Amino acid sequence: MCKENPHIQLYSGSPVIMTNLDNEALAEAYNRALDLEKAGKFDEAAEAYKHVLELDPEDHGGAAVRLARMGKGSAPAKAPDAYVSTLFDQHAEVFDMVLVDQLGYSVPLMVRDKIEKLELGPFKRLLDLGCGTGLSGEALHDLVPHKTGVDIAEGMVEVADEKEIYDDLYVGEVVEFLKVDEEERWDLIVATDVLPYMGQLEEFFAGVAENIEPKGVFAFSSETLPADVLGDQNFMVGKYHRFAHAESYVRGLLEKTGFSILDLTSIIVRYEQGEPVPGHLVIAAFDKG
């Protein structure tokens, strides 16, 4: 249980936050690296970010992602847990306003719209992976009687808890959560704005398959880039330091893990600096029992 909130549960996959960092030295090193990156001095920035990683191996600032974006390192398998947790905890109190009002994010409402148009359900149990402040839980509130939310950022989960949307809330990394042997499976699993913080998706999709009911529905969003940018890569770190995935990669993994695609739609996931961020909204059904 969380120390301050008995309604939110921690599990063994919860991120460990380091407390012995030299924050002053780390901030100085990170700001220097960031300044070099912004100045286009990528070789110098790369060395500076490597120094940041020496000071902070858990990578709270996402140096590994920035190195990949500059072409000075291979894309990591996912964004570092400490980075994602820190990033979202910092913005938890204003997250809804920023994401919805300023960035034009409406993917949870798109999910609901697709579910209704495809006449899916009724559903009994929802698993909201990367639930954040509960935007998907709110959008689907009256469609599912029992709702479980999971997110790596405790501050975000606390905001979701205040909304009284979910029956169960957990703090932890979603792939690790999916490894927990639950007595009951879920017949609706959603993951909105989760894939942009993951590179490799094999373990994640396999975990969803292990936890979904036969004929259950898996709804998720992803960000993407033009084919001439992605080339033959399954994923890469995009302009705004999130992961973009090739449609072929997503399709192939769904088929491999036992899902059939009910609907795959090109969407604008959000806006960044006034530019639309392209992506996909996917609704899939689990065919294996």
From TrEMBL:
Record-linked SUPFAM superfamilies: S-adenosyl-L-methionine-dependent methyltransferases, TPR-like
InterPro entries: Methyltransf_12, SAM-dependent_MTases_sf, TPR-like_helical_dom_sf, TPR_2, TPR_rpt
Parts of the chain that traverse the membrane: none
SMART domains: TPR
Domain Methyltransferase type residue range list: 127-218
Keyword Protein biosynthesis part of the UniProt annotation: no
Renumbered ranges of TPR repeats: 26-59
One protein family per Pfam: Methyltransf_12
GO terms for biological process, alphabetical: methylation
PANTHER family with a match to the protein in the record: TRANS-ACONITATE 2-METHYLTRANSFERASE, TRANS-ACONITATE 2-METHYLTRANSFERASE-RELATED
Protein name, UniProt field: S-adenosylmethionine-dependent methyltransferase
